């Protein structure tokens, strides 16, 4: 493949729209004659609504309706109607369905008024009475009633143990056993959740939604409200950050659609920052890890057990411990994963779901084990390198983690590390160097893409995927330009609309591989269609030529055997007499491939090296340097790819040092529900971060050799910070985030 | 948020009269705190009186050698005023340790004194709070009180005053100038904010309707030996867990005069005059500082989540006094860390 664009650092094609404010988000579509809904949230965590006094609010001029369980019709009755594409097992929450309160901040009413301000005011004076019953929100009190979930969510596999851990533990000469924990976290993307529903008459709706999957939103709306797809078009051109929060449609979508259908008007519902703490979050986990090594430092046993919170009504599952059976070579692995039901909303995938949590425990324990075994943490990991995926018993399609270790360590200067805690200094400051790493799935899902060349020679490639800030617009434009041999300016990628060919949710780091490969397929199809058109034209050189005999470059189709024989693509379209020639890929093969057991273990890996400097008296921590070496197959765009990994590192630092949703269990309520008090790193917290992409060629994972980058960069970062803090101070903190009080 | 009316007052007495004639009226400076509180329904004024046209945004030298900060001068203009930088660098540091550039550009000096606590429960109408609704109880006691106080607390409230600027103002012996229905008066800074006692709903000693018109800094600015040390959960844009304003006058290594005030620990900027007296006449050494730190925290009380602040405050006092003595950031300040070069 020639690479005019793929693999080249390319600035975001949607950058100008974003910085000039022309990029529109869900709450920015101002449709005529629109009403505004404001959500009223429950102050209690459990109980029921006993009274709603809507009359005084309805009497306010400009208030159109107060919706609650008392007057919202039951559009659907069965759980399956409320289950979106990735709903975990159970009975999904139904907003404004009955009087029952299942979690704090549950939506209990929607006040709809002529202006946002009025709706908000009216909501604040709506009198609602509750009958409270005792709630349970403390995970540590429910370890005993935690249970093993079934398969639950699509894609979730219960962790598999192997060998005999008890035997491995006994064989070991050095041992480590410890408990780890971290709090719940909320995604908190900059853009609050919002939906603008444009009423087009006769139950035809244009739905502008904040989501990571327009088709998922459409699916849910059609199922619950009994609308046909053509009546519920979902549009989502830009998403101001997702991180997983938009994988499941949020309740404001359902409330906005409901209000629109009931009032036969256009309606917008947007949530407040406080209400952003009312739905899915990274679940709190409590974890236990035990490791044992033989005299040569090889792991003889790995035990990793986790308990995570879920709601009373759904079993949210994620892979917290499974990675511990993969990352290192070990015969005896015991894994366990349980859920405890609490009176909270169902958790939700959040950047590197499961792995981010599990890698904290595993990678801190590995550091402890290295010390117990008297080995350098990097050397220890090298000795336990896994060349074969023992969890699935499959060969890796490719695995360049060793290169990550080597190149990352070299860049960082790891060799200069002295092992003893507190042994490195910068003036008065304690210096600590720690490392960690991880593994993440390289997934490819079926995705449909249409490629269309118009008579001006402009290529429009479209797919109903989403752009959550990862660079989807840009990389798809690059791939299409490359495939059709067009300048990048002659290519437009269109996404975020259910009228486009169907594409999976934007998540799991699978969009680049899924949609990217499909872009190539669609462009190949388009090339065939163009070639077919040439057969009707007076072009003897192209007569009987097959698609493999031509190549696309410089806006032309050329014979591979004689590049002077060329047809200008624009001319081909014009000759057809049609405004455009277009083609769509077929997802049949991709769908069939999903049914077959995999032949390879396909994963991205990383190794991260962190330097902290700690004030010896005040115990303030600064992460002064990070090197993150990533093996993720072919890097489509080093610029946006680097941004992904930089962002991941920042997330990891936040997880390590400050990020937590703190709950007051007396109220069953998260209390720091604002961006002033829910701390994520600011610029001043971030110093040098160096991203290294190691070379990893993989012709098995998918034709383009892409593994995806949205999540892998975060793995092991929090653990590496904790390990660096140990190295600096001798203090081993196993409860994230490591705030100053834990170090004093 | 309630609907409200708004007038831009043209003169101080007009503003005061306007306030007296409207029940439920509030003054508004930069709005960075008040508007947030209105959105959360914690504050429900029916009428806002804008102060920006009062001509109180100047910063001027006073005849006694001091400096007068107009109540409507922004935090940013104050911090970067040449007289503040050269004569009251402690104040410069304290202001710049707070909030963010955007907020400091909007926030006024008067508003900074009047900002309300950041106690989580005060902001959340679903929870009881004596400061917001007297008599309902204090949720922070026995709750998530990491941000709450350890000194001068009461059984009805353990909130802190969140300002950084005020900690420096307290240390510098500032006088608050106010105008009210009964005319003008001045209030010593230490008397301006109050302790919660049985009336946590009252943050300060302003009488109803009184307007802050200015802040008078005395001539002595401790520009030679000072330090504002702020410890928090992230390096910027977070309120102080503990902050210390330290200012010294030294004769050789002997302390001739000292000021010490703490932020993030009490319902007001916690100036400790007894501790200051302990410093005077003593050598500026770690021993002295440790003794004084122990004294300041002698009666401190932790409430669980915030108990660590007692130890943290002690260490911060020692460090701030050391920095003030040596006039260099000993280790941890915002400016200290520069991205270091990579080895290879
Ligand atoms: C996210 C965030 C982070 C912050 N971080 C910090 C921090 O780290 N450190 C810090 O110190 N501060 C911090 N602040 C607070 C900020 O400093 C204050 O909000 C600001 O100083 C208030 O000034 P203002 O003029 O905007 O007040 P306004 O919001 O206009 O008013 C606040 C109160 O003062 C009253 N008022 C205003 N002017 C007068 C006057 N002249 N006379 C009498 N009453 C008056 C108003 O009626 C109102 O009750 C932060 C604020 C936010 C929103
Ligand atoms: S500490 Fe004060 S502000 Fe906080 S909950 Fe108690 S009474 Fe309210």
Automatic annotation (TrEMBL), chain A:
SUPFAM superfamilies found in the cross-reference section: CO dehydrogenase molybdoprotein N-domain-like, Molybdenum cofactor-binding domain
InterPro entries: Ald_Oxase/Xan_DH_a/b, Ald_Oxase/Xan_DH_a/b_sf, Ald_Oxase/xanthine_DH-like, AldOxase/xan_DH_MoCoBD1, AldOxase/xan_DH_MoCoBD2, AldOxase/xan_DH_Mopterin-bd_sf
Organism superkingdom: Bacteria
Domain called Aldehyde oxidase/xanthine dehydrogenase a/b hammerhead: residue spans: 20-134
GO terms assigned for molecular function: iron ion binding; oxidoreductase activity
Pfam families: Ald_Xan_dh_C, MoCoBD_1, MoCoBD_2
Name of the molecule in the record: Aldehyde oxidase
From TrEMBL, chain B:
Pfam family, one: CO_deh_flav_C
PROSITE patterns in the record: FAD_PCMH
Molecular function terms from GO: FAD binding; oxidoreductase activity
SMART domains per record: CO_deh_flav_C
Keywords: FAD, Flavoprotein
The protein's name in its UniProt record: FAD-binding molybdopterin dehydrogenase
Source organism superkingdom: Bacteria
Listed InterPro entries: CO_DH_flav_C, CO_DH_flav_C_dom_sf, Diverse_Substr_Oxidored, FAD-bd_PCMH, FAD-bd_PCMH-like_sf, FAD-bd_PCMH_sub1, FAD-bd_PCMH_sub2, Mopterin_DH_FAD-bd
Residue runs in coiled coils: none
Signal sequence extent: none
